[in-house]
Amino acid sequence: MVEKSIELSFDWWYLSCADRFKQQQLRADFLGCYGADFVRTPHLDALRADGACFDRAVSPSPLCVPARASLLTGRNAVANGVLDNVHWLRPDRRACGVDTWPETLGAAGYRTAAIGKMHFYPWDIHEGFHDRVVAEDKRHLTVRDDYHTYLAARGAAKRHPSELPGYQEHRGAVVNPLPGDQQVDQWVADHTCDYLAAYDHDQPFALMASFPGPHCPYDPAQEDLDQVDADAMPEPIPATEESRRFRDFFVRNNKAPWNGVDYTDFTAEHKRKLRQHYGALIQRIDRGVGQILDQLKARGLYETTTVVFTSDHGEMMGDMDLMAKHFFFETSVRVPLLIKDPAWAPGSQVDKTVSLTDLHATILDHAGVDPPADPRDSLSLLRPESVDRRAPVFGATDLGFMITDDTWKLCRHANGAQMLYHRQDDPREQTNRFDDPACAAERDRLDRLLTQRLTESILQSHEEKAVFTPSTDRSAFGERGWRRPYPNPPA
Question: Which ranges of 74-183 would DSSP assign to H, the alpha helix?
């Protein structure tokens, strides 16, 4: 096998030369390597010791589909036109000059694979991956994916969690009755190991293993739940005047049939139990990560493989009296990011603010492929001895816009809410400084940057409509019947 690989994990990722793990809805501070002492994550802690830990990695669009679209393309949500969970990348994107990282790596000679949750529309398109083994979103009950086939062969099926005892009583915290080896996150780990064990292509691989958990429903197996102490869970961050402006939206959204949970009454006991169930799901995923790393080691690939672990967004988990994601509050946007690379010193720590979208350029950079995006986005430039200053991270969803750097975060929302937080002085975001005269200069600085990035992104989202680009042949312009090129991808 060629000796360069990448693995990514969504919450895992491998680049073999690459391997990547990707989690779904995993917040950073519920991992031991980010300071948690109430959940055990020994395998991720060991990965952190072997690589670099990014203290503040941010999901610029803390919502499943926009985050995944941006990771694939390296373009932000506005440029992609994917701001919520019911939009997806345009079918003619390649003609418009928009490629995904698996397409770029495939053209460079890599074998690309994705195992687990993708959240593509339609669910069975490949978006550039050669191989796919699919276990879609936990709530996509009608999707006939590979996990569906696996369960059906065993006389089982995915069930809506509302069918399980205690679902409403415990606000979505239930026990999954499937045996441990049939749990979806275990299934992803097992199939990733099977893929690695059978890999016989004479070319490097780039594999994304994407665990559907610890996304809601918060449904661990009883054996996993028994390993987590509910009383050890940290207390949630208190609600604020700003977070209460989103409470009606949050309650209304979760009452819809997709979830069917009424959070109008949301007690401390509800939150404690939900956090226990969330922690149990995380511990199952940590064991799956350990399995996959052991398989890499068994095949002699661990030392030569770039391994990346991250998530598409965080999870409020009762903080500010909210659940899930979508919001620009820190526990919704902050994600874990661990990178083990053969060229990087183990145990490195980076405290600069970086974006999940930076991983597109990073993947291509680590694979030795020239990134189509700005090469300065590559996190390879963030070795501790060479870090200077990163550009602020611009974020967007259908709720509004965010811009954040190492010190400040500015948010403007469609409902009129405007927030400015100082990250070091107020890490729990309890004091909104937007109208504070002492902070006016910083607010205005970030506001100008937000306007600039938003304008640039809107223009980028319409590049294919350009009549002329630097490479356009204009010799026939002015003749009757001249037709402008469409789509007109950037040169």
Answer: 77-80, 101-107, 146-152
User: CA 151: distance to chain centroid?
Assistant: 26
Q: How far apart are CA 256 and CA 239, in angstroms?
A: 23
Q: Which residues of 36-57 are buried (b: 16+ CB within 10 A; e: fewer)?
A: bebbbbebbbbbbebbbbbebb
DSSP 399-417: TEEEEE-SSEEEEEETTS-
Q: With CA atoms as reference, report the closest residue to 367 among 20, 24, 10.
A: 20
Q: Give the pTM.
A: 0.93
Determine contact, residues 17/26, Cβ cutoff 8 Å. no
Q: Which among 254, 241, 303 is positioned nearest to 430, based on CA atoms?
A: 241
**How far lies 315's CA from each of 4, 17, 63, 148, in Å?**
34, 31, 10, 26
pLDDT score at 12: 42
Smallest CA-to-CA distance from 86 within 212, 258, 218 is with: 258
Q: How many CB atoms lie within 10 A of CB 229?
A: 11
Q: What angle do CA 11, 13, 354 make, to 5 degrees?
A: 75
Tens digit of each residue's pLDDT (9 = 90 or more) over 173-231: 999 999 989 999 999 999 999 999 999 988 999 999 999 999 999 999 999 999 999 99
Phi-psi region of 300 (alpha: psi -120 to 50; beta: other; left: phi over 0): left
CB 117 within 8 A of CB 212: yes
Q: At what angle do helices 268-298 and 42-50 cross, to 10 degrees?
A: 60
Pair of tokens at residue 398? 């259908």
Cα separation, 372 vs 360, whole angstroms? 9
CB 11, CB 27: distance < 8 Å = no
- Tens of pLDDT along 159-175? 888 899 999 999 999 99
The candidate with the shortest Cα–Cα distance to 406, out of 421, 418, 395, 386, is 421
Helix (H) / strand (E) element for 292: namely helix 268-298
Q: Does domain 5-387 have CATH number 3.40.720.10?
A: yes
For the chain, the structural domain boundaries read 5-387
Cα separation, 348 vs 480, in Å, equals: 63
pLDDT tens for each residue of 45-80? 999 999 999 999 999 999 999 999 999 999 999 999
Q: What does the DSSP assignment read for 154-212? A: TT-----GGGSTTTTTTTTB----S-GGGSHHHHHHHHHHHHHHH---SS-EEEEEE--
